[in-house]
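I am writing to request your help with a piece of structural work I have in hand. I set the record out below, with my sincere thanks for your time.
___
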Amino acid sequence: MDSRGAVRDQLAARQREVLDDLLAGRTPPGFDAAPELDLLPDWRAHFHTWAAQHPQQGCAHDDVRDFLTTIGAPTATEPATESADAEANTSRLR
């Protein structure tokens, strides 16, 4: 096998290892996991709220905003008008 083939095989193996770790909820070796976040209670929910309020074009924030729009939930640019509306939108996800 030529060196390009060997490199491709190594890359494919690394991709499988990383994907296996991510799917298992582990941080793959070589990734910065920001361990200090684990010290913050409920940080994921807080981050998602923050991300929706600080959109940036061309990134995951767009996905969050688009998802909220799709389910009819208020976004950072469209505040909730009634709590009943928010509850109705949430119940559609259940």
